[in-house]
Automatic annotation (TrEMBL):
Region (Disordered): 1-22
Organism encoding this protein: Flavobacterium hercynium
Identification of the protein by name: DUF4595 domain-containing protein
Phylogenetic classification of the source organism: Bacteria, Pseudomonadati, Bacteroidota, Flavobacteriia, Flavobacteriales
Superkingdom, taxonomy of origin: Bacteria
Length: 437
């Protein structure tokens, strides 16, 4: 039985030439990838079977890692939606010849070929094997076979998220709380460079000068400057443009901010509108198109922290499995970041401007700690702060702090220089300011 759709063959791995050395010459002999031996799977009657097929040319090789996360997510969907069906769910990740007891076959083999599909067999001798291209929406596919109308969670969530987004858009309720949230949002856009960590934020937001421009640079050998970011402000202190540069100093683009009655109304990029802005009391709603999807992000202030939640919804509902919902929550003095309702990171710190200022960052994968990072900032004097990183890799481990670098402020209480070590090299970032008189 055929019917599996092939996906485009994956890029072939580069093979290293095998070299044999003799007294007279060097012989270079190309080693061809070992062909994968197909498995044979015999399927007996009496159960309902679902096959999640994701096979590439290299899937069966021992040195090739196969990420089963997507298959497992569909498996979890099936288990959640059909708990009473006693489905036998089988992941097929290498070439396999499947032989059913009623003499039907599925041939998922062929050197150099790749396959992505779903298959279902009801487990009775008269049942035909059903096949569907792709590995997504397995719940809907199985539901059709057993006449049970079920929906994957990402389909259900898409309907829910669309209602939530519709209720937020086109609002225009501007209050004093709107202005407070906008100020915090704009502070984020106007940080001197892009990769400032959250534990350092307070140091960059305590100046009171009436700024006209901010320009940041990496200082290289012999004093050469490589630009990082440039920000321009109007006479009311509102940012009008932000220019970005890569580590080589080449332009990465420019954002411009448009205001109406002192409130941000839209964001332009390369003379094209990329984001529209609406207000709903303490909330700011920013909507933008991101390729084949629309993204709606809501910002608000809570306990002095700017928090957000964001919906990324594909324009075509058949790709609803790619939709994304992220949310930040303030929990136990920590900002906790969720993706699709699963905890991904946790940022925890003490009170701002109380030194030493200790901060911890934890990231998670499959509910297990992926990375733990702890730092502290100590105040030497009013203009000099030192930052340290702990060598601890888990919260329960003892701290041994190593120096990261020094942060210097100028006479206006603005950060003017960072000196730090990265990849065993000393680096310096310089920040210049101009002000309105």
């Amino acid at each position: 039985m055929s019917g599996f759709a092939q996906k485009k063959p994956a890029a072939k791995k580069k093979t290293q030439p095998k070299t044999a050395v003799t007294k007279k010459e060097v012989v270079v002999e190309e080693v061809k990838p070992e062909k994968i031996k197909p498995d044979t799977l015999q399927v007996q009657k009496g159960k309902k079977y679902v096959f999640l097929v994701d096979v590439t040319e290299y899937s069966g090789q021992a040195d090739v890692y196969v990420d089963k996360a997507e298959d497992n997510s569909e498996k979890a969907e099936l288990q959640r939606n059909f708990p009473k069906e006693n489905l036998e769910i089988i992941n097929i990740t290498k070439y396999t010849y499947i032989l059913f007891e009623n003499k039907q076959t599925l041939d998922i083999t062929g050197y150099g070929k790749s396959f992505q599909a779903l298959a279902y067999w009801g487990g009775k001798m008269d049942d035909k094997v059903q096949i569907k291209e792709g590995t997504k929406m397995a719940t809907e596919f199985v539901g059709e076979q057993i006449r049970s109308k079920k929906e994957s969670s990402y389909v259900v969530n898409t309907k829910k998220y669309k209602k939530e987004v519709a209720s937020l858009q086109n609002k225009n309720k501007i209050t004093s709380k709107s202005r407070e949230t906008l100020k915090a949002l704009l502070n984020g856009y106007t940080l001197p460079f892009s990769d400032i960590r959250s534990e350092e934020m307070a140091l960059y937001q305590q100046g009171t000068a009436k700024l006209k421009t901010i320009d940041s640079y990496i200082i290289k050998n012999k004093g050469a400057r490589t630009p990082l970011k440039s920000v321009a402000f109007d006479t009311d202190g509102l940012p009008t443009s932000v220019s970005f540069y890569d580590r080589e100093g080449k332009s990465k683009g420019k954002k411009e901010f448009v205001y109406k009655d002192g409130m941000l109304s839209k964001i332009m990029k390369d003379d094209q509108e990329v984001s529209s802005v609406n207000y709903d009391d303490n909330k700011i709603v920013i909507t933008e198109n991101v390729g084949d999807a629309n993204q709606t992000t809501i910002f608000w202030l809570e306990n002095g922290k700017l928090l957000r939640k964001s919906y990324t919804l594909m324009a075509d509902d058949k790709f609803s499995y790619m939709n994304n919902f992220v949310e930040e929550k303030f929990e136990n003095n920590c900002v906790v970041y969720y993706i699709n309702n699963v905890v991904w990171t946790r940022d925890c710190s003490g009170a701002s401007n109380v030194y030493p200022f200790v901060h911890t960052y934890t990231s998670f994968q499959n509910k297990e700690v992926l990375q733990f990072r702890k730092s502290k900032i100590e105040k030497n004097n009013d203009r000099t702060f030192e930052k340290f990183y702990s060598t601890a890799e888990r919260a329960e481990q003892n701290d041994f702090y190593k120096p990261w670098g020094t942060i210097h402020l100028d006479e206006m209480n603005l950060v003017e220089m960072l000196k730090f070590t990265k990849d065993n090299n000393e680096q310096t970032i310089k920040i210049d300011y101009t002000c309105y008189e």
